[in-house]
Design a protein that fits this description.
Keywords: Amino-acid transport, Signal, Transport. This is ABC transporter substrate-binding protein. It comes from Marinospirillum insulare. Belongs to the leucine-binding protein family. It holds the Pfam family Peripla_BP_6. The structure is a single chain. With 384 residues, this protein is of the alpha/beta class. The chain folds into 2 domains: 193 residues, Rossmann fold; 148 residues, Rossmann fold (3-Layer(aba) Sandwich), CATH 3.40.50. It contains 12 helices and 14 strands. 44% of the residues lie in helices and 17% in strands. The N terminus is likely disordered. A 5-stranded parallel beta sheet has the order 2-1-3-4-5, with helices on both faces. Helix 2 packs across helix 11, helix 3 packs parallel to helix 4 and helix 11 packs across helix 12.
């Protein structure tokens, strides 16, 4: 074989090797890390969140991925334990070397991981609700649910529009309920309203009749507001009906799901709460910018998993899509570039609301992004 042929063969081999190497580089996955409460007491949050992430990673990869690279979901189940969440966040950063984290079903799990995430300079989009997650602003931390402050404000606005100014407040002592109570107490005075009864319950309590009786016996109470999540708000609602309390009753966004209705039976009739329009997509006018997004998500989720969609899965949808939007905007997975891109997102229409992020707002949603829903004949009805 001549030297010319050998040289040509060597050139072709080198070219092929370079092509394979370049192709391998181009196909290197973008790693989306996640720790979620898929099992345990907060599984009603984490299970639909994981299902949503899996669904949309599959769909995004089917159309070519992001910036020419497939997505790879690396997830762990923290079972609602804050210590486990912190350990999994550490593993995602140090061992799995993910590019961004979308997760944290609960406020406790999220806040346990935040110091490590800030230290690692890792973009993180939380799926938990408490205002403390993004207020004060933390450079690397964002979130998709409206804050408990926004939820309290929206409920108080609705009460005030009906002439209600004196409120009985009942709340859980867990992280979500405690923060929601604090935000409600901070807002009422500014809105010309008053908390005339203030009682709490433990997440382990199986009956809240005593607390509700105290509220019922307090002079001047015009409406009752419960701030909590998990099984407890369902117990509160059933006890409320059993006591025959004839006052307007509000829950927080922490129970905004069809599954919650299943736990109530007839006890929930007339109950109001702030929620995403995801629970009532058919009630939205065609002019509503969220209608197409929530209708599509609901259809795809329910077809894929053969189960009802939930607001909490919607938080995961928005978290992943905001991550994708930021990576595309940055044109890379460079952490600082992605973080800056997240901060600059404006007018992004999600399941939860229309996001307008900034350097001073890492949530990007106002109280107006909530819709007020009421239980009518065992189903959610859009009020305003």
């Amino acid at each position: 074989m001549s030297k010319k042929i050998l040289r040509r063969a060597g050139f072709l081999a080198a070219t092929l090797a370079a092509s394979i190497f370049t192709g391998a580089q181009a196909a290197e996955p973008i790693k989306i890390g996640s720790f979620l409460s898929v099992t345990g007491p907060a599984s009603f949050l984490g299970d639909p969140e994981l299902k949503t992430l899996e669904l949309y990673v599959e769909r995004i990869n089917a159309v070519g991925g992001v910036i020419g690279r497939p997505l790879e979901l690396v997830h762990y189940d923290d079972a609602g334990d804050a210590s486990a969440a912190r350990n999994f966040a550490s593993r995602l950063v140090r061992s799995d070397r993910v590019d961004i984290i979308v997760g944290g079903s609960t406020t406790g799990a999220t806040m346990a991981a935040v110091p490590l995430i800030e230290q690692a300079r890792m973009p993180f989009i939380s799926l938990a609700g408490a205002v403390v997650i993004t207020d004060p602003v933390k450079k690397w931390v964002f979130k998709t649910p409206q804050s408990d402050r926004a939820a309290a404000e929206r409920v108080l606005q609705d009460m005030k529009s009906h002439g209600i100014t004196k409120i009985g407040l009942i709340s859980g002592t867990g992280g979500f309920g405690r923060s929601g109570r604090e935000q409600t107490l901070a807002l009422v005075g500014k809105m010309g309203m008053e908390i005339v009864a203030d009682v709490t319950y433990s997440p382990s309590d199986t009956d809240m009749t005593a607390q509700l009786t105290r509220i019922r016996n307090t002079p001047g109470v015009e409406a009752v507001f419960n701030f909590g999540f998990g099984q407890s708000p369902a117990i509160v609602t059933r006890n409320y009906a059993q006591l025959g309390i004839d006052l307007p009753f509000y829950q927080s966004h922490g129970v905004a799901s069809d599954r919650f209705l299943d736990l109530l039976g007839d006890a929930g009739e007339g109950l109001r709460l702030p929620a995403s329009p995801l629970l009532v997509p058919d009630s939205l006018p065609n002019s509503d910018p969220q209608k197409a997004v929530v209708t599509s998500y609901k259809k795809l989720y329910e077809e894929r998993w053969n189960m009802q969609v939930s607001t909490f899965g919607g938080y995961a949808h928005d978290g992943l899509m905001l991550a994708v939007e930021a990576i595309e905007k940055a044109g890379s997975t460079d952490r600082e570039a992605v973080r800056k891109a997240l901060e600059s997102i404006q007018g992004y229409v999600g399941v939860t609301g229309v996001f307008n992020m900034s350097s001073t707002d890492h949530n990007g949603l106002s109280a107006d992004s909530f819709r007020i829903l009421e239980v009518k004949n065992g189903k959610w009805k859009l009020i305003n």
